[in-house]
Amino acid sequence: MTTTGMLLGKFMPPHNGHVYLARFAENYVDQLSIVVCSLKNEPIPGHLRYDWMHRMFPDCNVIHVTDELPQLPEEHPDFWQLWYDTLMRVLPGKPDYVFAGEDYGAPLAETLDGIFVPSNMGRAIIPTSGTDVRTNPAENWDYIPEVVRPYFVKRIAVIGAESTGKSTLTAKLAQHFQTVFVPEYAETLIMHRGRDLNEDDFKMIAQAQAASVEAMTYQARRVLFCDTEIMTTAIWSEMLLDTCPHWLDAGAREKRYDLYLLMDTDAEWQDDAHRYGIETQERFMTSCMKRLKEDNKPYIRLSGSWDDKFNAAIAAVTELY
């Protein structure tokens, strides 16, 4: 006889306690339905939570319920009937077992004529909650599943003109915060094709840089440092091609990082094969400051000695979490 089960929750966000409970339930029954419930005004969009659970549990029947239902029995006299009607509408049938890590599991199972199977009650096995993760994701990082982590990663863009030390700072900050960083893709392309770039090259740079950022968010720990970003690409397009395509300009203004670290031009110039020359520094800095202010993006300007810049960057990033 095939056994069926149901696990219901907000999963806001899914954490390792939810993962344990779902794996427990998945191994307890033959067929498990996971019901992700969301309301319109909750802090994490329901479609994201559904997608996370679906990706983590592809062999389960993951269902997204968006009905604006009461959340507590005292909120409505027909609380249990409303939930019964909704669940019977979306489930393949009455579940044999209902799984939960909280006391609501017992009356819910009774409502559905199923058997309540409690697990991780009082968070005895996995000591965290969705509220804990939302309130302080950095402190609860080890309880956040890999698929969910990019949502909470703070993205830091290290930007600046040529030979200002941004690549060095990016790597050093990643080392300090025990995380990873995204290198500048433009350098890779220039070393491969040369410095004579066209509009198609800028499209590849923008797409590749963005793709690299998204790929590395899964390996980042709390924070991800990015050596340049799309705004930088737009400025270089203006400087080298005397124009910036609409799609590039729009993308540069729309994309926002949690913080921009702008390197001042007070470092000694270091020549390199992929660089365009010291005469580009002030023009780049002027354009960069203009765009940051126009688009109201959060930034700090790093000036002074190397230690001054490094320490100021650490302090600014630490404030984010």
Task: Tag the structure with descriptive keywords.
single chain, 321 residues, alpha/beta, Rossmann fold, five-stranded parallel sheet, 15% strand, elongated
What is this entry, summarized?
With 321 residues, the protein is of the alpha/beta class. Helix content is 44%, strand content 15%.
Give structural notes.
- This protein has 321 residues and is of the alpha/beta class.
- The chain has 2 domains: 4-139, HUPs (Rossmann fold), CATH 3.40.50.620; 153-320, Rossmann fold.
- The chain is 44% helix and 15% strand.
- The protein is built from 13 helices and 10 strands.
- Helix 1 links the parallel strand 1 and strand 2 (31-37).
- 34% of the residues are buried.
State the separation between the terminal residues, measured CA to CA: 51 Å
Q: Beta-sheet strand percentage?
A: 15-25%
The percentage helix is: 40-55%
What is the topology, as strand order, of the major beta sheet? Answer: 3-2-1-4-5
Total DSSP E strands:
10
- The secondary structure category is alpha/beta
Shape annotation? elongated
CATH fold node name of the largest domain:
Rossmann fold
